[in-house]
Amino acid sequence: MTRTTDSSHQTAADRARSAFLDRFGESPACVASAPGRVNLIGEHVDYTEGLVLPFAIDPRAAIAIGIGADDRSVFVADDLGVSVEYPGAPITAPDPTPDHRFANHLLGVLHAAGGTGGQPLNVLVTSDIPIGAGLSSSAAVEVALAAAVASFFDRPADHHTLARQAQAAEHEFVGTPCGIMDMLVSAAGIEGKALRIDCRDLHLTPVKMPSAEEAVVLIVDSGVTHRLSDGGYADRRDSCERVQAVLSGSLRDASIESIADADLTERDRRRATHVVQENARVDDAVAALEAGDLHRLGEILLDGHRSLRDLFEVSIPELDCIVDTAADLRGDGCFGARMTGGGFGGSAILLVSSPAIEHVRQTIERRFADAYGRIPTSMMVHACQGVRLES
Ligand code: GLA
Predict the structure, then answer these.
(1) 102, 165, 174, 283: least CB-packed within 10 angstroms?
(2) Is the pTM of this model over 0.90?
(3) Cα 355 from Cα 121, distance rounded (Å)
């Protein structure tokens, strides 16, 4: 983790620092920030020891912390305008109050990180990452807090430790049975690189992204808010676990033949087929990136989308509309596209040649508006550094 100072514009970290001062009357003891992410390819395979290829993106979440005064802990979500207070140190179990949902992300990290040693703690959160857009806004908050706490209490702060603490918070306090992809790339992201993560041993391999002259990644938000705790995600995970029980082994080691022969429901077979083919697509995508073959990469993205739509069944019509339009623009500046993240809403990513970006964006907006009566928000992103302490 490196320390940086960014004074060029009001970053999430700047806002966290000044909002903390306003709220608590003193400067924070520590500020950390962590980015959102998109996944280029490798969807719904991280929880079966598969391969993924995400990168950290420009928007960041920031956390400012300091010792609580008057023997109470206060958590503030500045952008949401909400706060929660606890007498003494932060509680060590999930907060059951419905309005306190956001606090469970923080409580979960503090718990997984070994607590505060009984000290009251003030925590203030700000973020540039849109919530519900499938860009891992929660993972970014959790990773930033894990880093701030590690620094403040002088505890281990390697990327894997921070990611595991964030994942434990999701599993044990938020109730989302997510994989580790989002938090690991938010922790370990590298400027200009995607990360091939082998979710079996969590080995990370940086893979160079195209330069801005070659291609840019455009994120288009379907505007349909997804929540991984809503059930569809856990249902897909259950399917994969049933298949692994029948195969007596990890889906990572399965083949199309072993799935075709196994005693499975047709739905579970389709989902398992997606997983096996998706793992292969990740290494195909790495090879395409290394060869600078963006046309091939675009085809892989489109194949991945079809598989998520037809086999894994996690896309929605709004995302299909964006991706179908992108596919129609192949040969007209768009290399390919797919939904990214868990699905059921959220965003699509498009790989676009730089000169075509405005044409592609406007065509997507027009087609989407014709179908859904509103213009989707979009942003260009590039591969960014992961978590950092902000001096
Ligand atoms: C969400 C989860 C990840 C991963 C993706 C699907 O983003 O948090 O762990 O499973 O969905 O690839």
Answers:
(1) 283
(2) yes
(3) 49
Ligand 1 midpoint to CA 118 (Å): 33
Active site positions, annotated: 182
Asked if the structure places residue 42 within a domain, the reply is: no
Q: Is the pLDDT of residue 328 over 90?
A: yes
Secondary structure (3-state) at 357 = helix
Q: Which tens digits make up the pLDDT trace of 69-127?
A: 999 999 999 999 999 999 999 999 999 999 899 999 999 999 999 999 999 999 999 99
For the Cβ of 179 lying below 6 angstroms from any atom of ligand 1, the answer is yes
Which pair of tokens denotes residue 41? Answer: 């390819």
Please name the residue whose Cα sits nearest to atom 9 of ligand 1: 179
Ligand 1 center–CA 13 separation, angstroms: 26
Domain that holds residue 327: 215-381
Q: Give me ligand 1 centre to Cα 42, in Å.
A: 9
Q: 46 CA distance to ligand 1 centroid (A)?
A: 7
How far is residue 112 from each of residues 55, 104, 108, 116, 145, measured CA to CA in Å? 25, 12, 6, 11, 11
Q: Are 200 and 179 in contact (CB under 8 A)?
A: no
Residue found by looking up tokens 């891992």 in the block? 136
Our answer on whether the CB atom of 170 is closer than 6 Å to any ligand 1 atom is no
Number of domains in the chain: 2
Q: Does 47 map to a domain?
A: no
Question: What mean pLDDT do residues 179-204 have?
Answer: 98
In short, whether 342's Cβ falls inside 6 Å of ligand 1 is: yes
CATH number, domain of 182, equals 3.30.230.10
Q: Is residue 240 within 6 Å of ligand 1 at its C-beta?
A: no
Please tell me whether residue 177 adopts helix, strand or coil conformation.
coil
